[in-house]
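Example 3.2
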Amino acid sequence: MRGGFWTIIRIPLPRARPIAILFDLDGTLVDTVPFILEAVRHAFEGHGRCPTDAEWIAGIGTPLRAQLAAFARPEDVEGLFARYRAFWLANHDDRTRAFPGAVEVVRALAGAGHPVGIVTAKIEQGALRTLAHTGFLPWVTAIVGADSCANAKPHPEPVLLALSRLGRPPGEALLLGDSPHDLAAARAAGALAVGATWGACGRDVLLAHADHLLDDVSALPALVRAI
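Structure, written as tokens:
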């Protein structure tokens, strides 16, 4: 107190730390849905009825074996899986591209201090190949695939595992994905669910499951700043 006046020392409060950003991979960061459908048609060629594009798209976001099992006899699943994987491995680099602007968005978010993770229905090895080929890998800290934990999306376990690796609770995270399975997993985990309308499923399909919808990946940084 000086001359009857209190001297108030203002100590600035620390800013909230940057939230974690989780991404689905196929149909969200990389434009691979047409390639996936090609691989499905190749796998089922000569093996009974091939699922329609719409039938397969409805299951995108869940593990490959689980999707195959919905359209095949149990004894045929491994053979179909092997045919799919052989086609995928042989054609991956020619058919896999990042969506325009996606690498720049991920790089900018990581550069701003946001921990970045991938939660995908691919196995980890496949996700690593895709991320390296398309240029995302340097900016990704955590990768959770179909073989990373016991449960797959829409169960919350993959989301929670990715966040544990990033050191963030669900209340400090969002997940961007293009299927209802992605968004259901995010919500079940307690993270924000952001729908990517440019992927496998359109706005009408995602609307009931999303906290936010984006029509272009370039809009993500503005949403992050607004949260």
